[in-house]
Structure formats: structure tokens, C-alpha cells
TrEMBL record:
Name under which the protein is recorded: Aldehyde dehydrogenase
N-terminal signal peptide: none
Source organism of this protein record: Zancudomyces culisetae
Biological process according to GO: aldehyde metabolic process
GO CC terms in record: cytoplasm
A GO term, aspect molecular function: aldehyde dehydrogenase (NAD+) activity
Aldehyde dehydrogenase domain location: 2-401
Highest classification ranks of the organism: Eukaryota, Fungi, Fungi incertae sedis, Zoopagomycota, Kickxellomycotina
Active-site residue list: 177, 214
């Protein structure tokens, strides 16, 4: 389905987010396609019952104890608009492979992608296995009242709580793929040559899809020593990627809606930081254009630190030490992703002293492209994870199945459990 419709999918993404075709392919279309192929190749292995460890447990040694990956049943998947092709399709692949049937509710906000996805799924997939229901809050509220066996939601934490409550009503399994403020912490030990590499990685991951990526760097904390050089490197990378006039760049996407545009504008209007590039007079509501915004001298109490930005705004904060950055992260919600740039020793310290959905050292976003590792958050950034084998684990119940033997010699072993409890070893 995906390989036969690559161009159409890219076109829909362009219409929704003015997503450059190359970006559409590498971040959404190819990963969705790869996930399908990978799953087809591996699913028989991953779904095979595995023998349980009965080591040192003689009472089980003669039986057959297996763990089966059993389907949950009906999975309801409510998806988001920012990656409107990969976000529904990647978990869908795993849920079907695991033997479930799926009711998919794509985002009503990414209109073109969701419409195309609906058409394609109806054309290519068996309607006994996947049904698409389109709509917004009203329709989703009705769906949440239906009896299902699994609910999966991708989006913000406020709605995440509504979904968790609906799942609690039914006591069904729930997966929540949420967001939050994902930090990047930069050690002062990063040398000059390296800083420009660090900056170009951060700029790539931040402004891709106009900042509307759940694992994008939300804000950067830079140790004093590297601060000034880092600012210059960030600006250099922004202009190298998108030119002096990013509005003209064919490689720069747009904001999804006026609602998001207005939300971001208010945050930037209220900042006490120093806007180095991307002042609001360059913004254009009629075309949903927001240039790359870089804000320096941002305080922890700034408007830009009050909520997940989810747009092309990069606040940069000066910290005295890597420890100060770690402390700030510890005091706030576990982020979906955590990025650290620095040496091995500090990296180990960051990993050991923080919690986050994923952690990448010296790069950004790459965890989103590992099909063999779970993609998900922890605590306020999410519950559960998916991709490859992790999807099989997420969309199945690990069912313990024991096939006991009825013939000798298990009888003699069994007799020790029967009353009357009078033999040797029963004197407790
Ligand atoms: P959204 O508000 O569009 O919500 C997503 C889905 O929830 C849609 O299908 C929508 O119809 C439904 N929905 C909205 N309000 C609802 C309600 N009151 N009741 C029931 N259903 C409702 O999405 P959003 O919050 O704007 O998406 C952005 C957030 O999603 C960010 O926080 C981002 O970090 C996060 N995100 C996370 C991931 C991930 O994989 N962890 C991926 C993408 C986005």
C-alpha cells in the first residue's frame, strides 16, 4: 500500500504541512514501508511461543510451560496530525501482525493525509481487520465508549488523561504516546570544531517539520564555557540550511493551523529572552509561516519554558554546569527524549541520573529511526512503546500456557503437594 502510493502520500503531506518531498520520504513514507517489511520478515519468530524458565523448579520440569503472544482483540488507535502517515501506520503494522483487529481514528487536523489514508486502507486492507473512523472530539468520545480490548492514543497529555480514564472504565490495556519538553544539554567540554557539528544536528532536528516533532529538542541548556560559541554556531546552521529568507526555502515546512500559529505567537510575544532571529514581524499567519526562531538569554521561568513548544522556536539557556542541567531535568516531568552532547563520563552521569522515554548522546531524533527498539515515553511523556518487536509486545497479552503431563513419573512428583501433609518436609 505504501510503496505503490509514495508520491500521493508525499503530496498529501505537502498539502497539510508543506512538507518537502525528501523529508516526507525519509521521515514518514520509507519508515512506514520499512516497518511493514521488517514485520513480515520477523513476525513468525517474534510470535512463536517461548519456553518459560523453570530452572530449579522441579515441579515444572516435567510439564511444558510456554509463554504465548496472544492477541488482545479490538484495538482502538487515535492518532495525531504532525506525522499523519507514520504515526497511524507504524503501530497499525504491529497490531495487525499480532493478530488484532483495529479501529483507526486518524487526526481530523491533517485533513489531506487522513483522507488519503482512509481511501488507501479501504482499498488495500481487509475491512474485517481494519476500519477507519474519521472525526474530531465528538466522534472520538463516542468511540471511547465502545467495548474494546486496547486503546492507543498519540497526542498531548491532557487528552491522554481522557483516554486513560476511558480505558480505566473498561479495564482495557492502554498505550499513550505523549509529548512534553525534551531538553538538550550541552557540556562546556565540547570543543570549537565539534560545536558547529552539534549545532547543525540540533538545528536539523529542531526545524524539521517546522518544529512539530514530538521528539524535537524543545530547549537547549548550554554550559557557560561553550555558550557564546554555541549561539554563533546555531545561527550559522540556521542560515546555512534555510538561507537568509526561510520563507523562500523549499526545504522548510509550515505550521499546521492558525490555532497553533496563534499559540506560538503569544509565547514568543511574552518571552523575556533576546530574539536573535525570527521576530514576530516576519511571521505570516495567512500562509502559516513561522521562520526559525532562536531566543537567547532565556530564564527557566520564561513563557517559552511554560509548555511544550511544538514549533520552530529554540530557547537557549545558560547553565553553570552539567549538574545544574541534570537537576533541572530531575525536577520536571520525565521528557519523551533527552539529548546530551559531551564526553563519555558526563554522558554516563546524565543517563544514570535522569529518566526519559529515550536518550541520545551526541545526536538528535535518531531513536525514531531504530525499528528494533521501542519508541515511547515514560510517566507524563507516555505509557508503553512500539516499533518492531516492541509492537508485538505492546499489542499482545503474554499468556502463560502450561500443558501438564498426566502420566508417570509426574504423579510421584505431584503426590508431594497432596494432603494429608504428613510426609518428610511437611512439618511447617
Ligand atoms: P490532537 O489534539 O490533535 O490530538 C490527537 C488526537 O486526539 C486526534 O485524533 C484528536 O481527534 C483526538 N482528540 C483531541 N481532543 C480529544 C478529546 N477531548 N477527546 C478525545 N479525543 C480527542 O493532538 P495534539 O495534542 O495537538 O498533538 C501534539 C502532541 O502530541 C504534542 O504534545 C506531541 O509531543 C505529541 N505527540 C507525541 C507523539 C509520540 O509518539 N509520543 C507523536 C506525535 C505527537
Amino acid at each position: 500500500m505504501v510503496s505503490e502510493n509514495r508520491d500521493q502520500l508525499a503530496e498529501a503531506l505537502y498539502k497539510d504541512l508543506r512538507r518537502p518531498a525528501y523529508e516526507a520520504h525519509i521521515t514518514e513514507i520509507l519508515p512506514a514501508e520499512y516497518e511493514g517489511g521488517y514485520m513480515l520478515q520477523q513476525m513468525d519468530t517474534w510470535l512463536k511461543p517461548v519456553s518459560a524458565d523453570t530452572y530449579h523448579q522441579p515441579q515444572h520440569m516435567l510439564g511444558d510451560v510456554k509463554i504465548h503472544k496472544a492477541p488482545l482483540g479490538v484495538a482502538l488507535m487515535i492518532s495525531a496530525w504532525n506525522y499523519p502517515i507514520r504515526l497511524p501506520l507504524m503501530p497499525l503494522v504491529g497490531a495487525i501482525a499480532a493478530g488484532n483487529v483495529v479501529v483507526l481514528k486518524p487526526s481530523e487536523i491533517s485533513v489531506h493525509s487522513s483522507r488519503l489514508l482512509t481511501e488507501l486502507i479501504e482499498k488495500y486492507l481487509d475491512s474485517r481487520v481494519v476500519r477507519v473512523v474519521n472525526g474530531g472530539v465528538e466522534e472520538t468520545t463516542v468511540l471511547l465508549k465502545q467495548k474494546v480490548d486496547h486503546m492507543m492514543y498519540t497526542g498531548n497529555g491532557t487528552v491522554g488523561r481522557i483516554i486513560a480514564k476511558a480505558a480505566a472504565e473498561q479495564l482495557c490495556k492502554v498505550s499513550l504516546e505523549l509529548g512534553g519538553k525534551s531538553p538538550a544539554l550541552i557540556s562546556g567540554s565540547v570543543n570549537q570544531d565539534h560545536l558547529s557539528r552539534v549545532a547543525s544536528r540540533i538545528v536539523w532536528g529542531k526545524y524539521l517539520n517546522c518544529g512539530q516533532t514530538c521528539i524535537a529538542v524543545d530547549y537547549v541548556m548550554v554550559e557557560n564555557k561553550a555558550y557564546e560559541r554555541f549561539l554563533l554556531s546555531i545561527l550559522e546552521a540556521v542560515f546555512a540550511f534555510y538561507g537568509k529568507d526561510s520563507k523562500k526555502s523549499p526545504d522548510y515546512a509550515r505550521i499546521i493551523s492558525e490555532r497553533q500559529f496563534d499559540r506560538l505567537k503569544k509565547l514568543v510575544e511574552n518571552t523575556k529572552g533576546n530574539i536573535l532571529t525570527g521576530k514576530t514581524d516576519e511571521w505570516d499567519r495567512s500562509t502559516l509561516f513561522i521562520p526559525p526562531v532562536v531566543v537567547d538569554d532565556v530564564g527557566f521561568d520564561d513563557s517559552l519554558m511554560s509548555e511544550e513548544l511544538f514549533g520552530p522556536i529554540l530557547p537557549i539557556i545558560k547553565v553553570d554546569s552539567v549538574d545544574e542541567g541534570i537537576k533541572y531535568i530531575q525536577k520536571h516531568d520525565h521528557p519523551l527524549s533527552l539529548y546530551f552532547f559531551g564526553d563519555e563520563k558526563d554522558a554516563s552521569k546524565v543517563i544514570a541520573n535522569t529518566r526519559s522515554g529515550s536518550c541520545v548522546i551526541n545526536d538528535v531524533l535518531m531513536q525514531g529511526s531504530v525499528h528494533g527498539a521501542p519508541f515511547g515515553g515514560v510517566g507524563p511523556s507516555g505509557v508503553g512503546g512500539y516499533s518492531g518487536k516492541a509492537s508485538i509486545d505492546e499489542f499482545t497479552h503474554s499468556r502463560t500456557v502450561i500443558k501438564a503431563k498426566t502420566d508417570f513419573p509426574s504423579e510421584s512428583l505431584e503426590s508431594v503437594r497432596n494432603p494429608p501433609y504428613t510426609g518428610p518436609g511437611t512439618e511447617w
